[in-house]
Amino acid sequence: MFLFSDHVVVRRADIKDSVYTRRRDWSNARNVFEGLAHVQPDRAFEARSPERETAQERLRVFLPWGTDVDSADRVEFDGRTYEVDGDPMEWNYGSIRHVRVRAWRVEH
């Protein structure tokens, strides 16, 4: 069993049209959820090469049931920003109903 004791913020940005592309306007993002969740490490790995050195970190974030979160959102936890990876999964069984999100970030 897990407890919701980690502070997280879920942020969402609207799509902005420009002359050539459509992209999310993260400079004007808004909070869609701010509160307690349960965060667990998922995995971390590094890719080293002479041209580039990167590190990836993945988390599993368990949000309260009914949290409005989408695959294009971002999650802020512990001073870092993570991208939501894939569709959130709703768990409606047992005593702790929740929404599970996989989040990842890349560091150069």
TrEMBL record:
* The protein's name: Head-to-tail stopper
Extract the InterPro entries matched here: SSP1_head-tail_sf
> What is the native source organism of this protein?
Streptomyces mashuensis
Q: What is the lineage of its organism?
A: Bacteria, Bacillati, Actinomycetota, Actinomycetes, Kitasatosporales
